[in-house]
């Protein structure tokens, strides 16, 4: 139909605009247990910084430091207040408890939906995420 192959493509990296590289690296590592994959100096104060969930599962996040007022204005509101990203887990209770212990700010108590167990949390800048364990 579209001319694209059925395999060989995936969403691999998603850019998240941040205020500071090092603060974002620390937050994602300490609060969510993400691993720093790349931190490459591009010159001029820019870096290519990627993090991913431990075990290399799912897409990487490119932590992109805001450059200018327009980009800075999007920090923490990349989707206009909607949930931005979805952190899937195979054990909601375990990860929810660990994230609370790590100081992650949940915006609601866990709820059970037809598709699974979910709760919204905010990242370092206020972008909204779902922690979700899908019902199988």
Describe the fold and architecture:
With 136 residues, the chain is α+β, with helices and mostly antiparallel strands. Helix content is 21%, strand content 40%. It has 3 helices and 9 strands; from the N terminus they run βαβββαβαββββ. The chain has helices at residues 21-32, 69-74, 92-101; strands at 13-18, 34-43, 46-53, 60-65, 83-88, 105-106, 111-113, 116-122, 128-134. The strands form 2 sheets. Strands 5, 6, 7, 8 and 9 form a 5-stranded mixed beta sheet that branches. A 4-stranded mixed beta sheet has the order 1-4-3-2. The chain starts with 12 loop residues before the first strand and ends with a strand. The mean pLDDT is 94.
Overall SS class: alpha+beta
The total of helices stands at 3
Instruction: Report the radius of gyration as a whole number of Å.
Output: 16 Å
Span from first to last CA?
A: 31 Å
SSE order in H/E notation?
EHEEEHEHEEEE
Helix content: 10-25%
Outline, from the CA principal axes? globular
What order do the helices and strands come in, and which of them pair?
Blueprint: E1 13-18, H1 21-32, E2 34-43, E3 46-53, E4 60-65, H2 69-74, E5 83-88, H3 92-101, E6 105-106, E7 111-113, E8 116-122, E9 128-134
Parallel strand pairs: 1-4, 5-9
Antiparallel strand pairs: 2-3, 3-4, 6-8, 7-8, 8-9
How would you describe this structure in keywords?
136 residues; alpha+beta; 5-stranded mixed beta sheet; 4-stranded mixed beta sheet; 3 helices; 9 strands
How do you describe this structure in short?
This protein has 136 residues and is an alpha+beta fold. It has helices at residues 21-32, 69-74, 92-101, and strands at 13-18, 34-43, 46-53, 60-65, 83-88, 105-106, 111-113, 116-122, 128-134. The relative contact order is 0.18.
């Amino acid at each position: 139909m579209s001319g694209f192959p059925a395999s060989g493509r995936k969403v691999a990296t998603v850019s998240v605009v941040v205020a500071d590289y090092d603060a974002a690296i620390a937050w994602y590592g300490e609060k969510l247990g993400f691993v720093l994959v790349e931190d490459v100096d591009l010159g001029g104060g820019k870096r290519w910084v990627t993090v991913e969930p431990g075990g290399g599962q799912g897409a990487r996040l490119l932590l992109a430091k805001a450059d200018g007022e327009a980009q800075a204005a999007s920090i923490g509101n990349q989707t206009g207040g909607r949930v931005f990203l979805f952190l899937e887990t195979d054990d909601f209770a375990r990860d929810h408890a660990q994230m609370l212990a790590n100081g992650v700010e949940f915006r609601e108590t866990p709820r059970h939906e037809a598709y699974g167990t979910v709760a919204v949390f905010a990242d370092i800048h206020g972008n909204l995420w779902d922690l979700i364990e899908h019902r199988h």
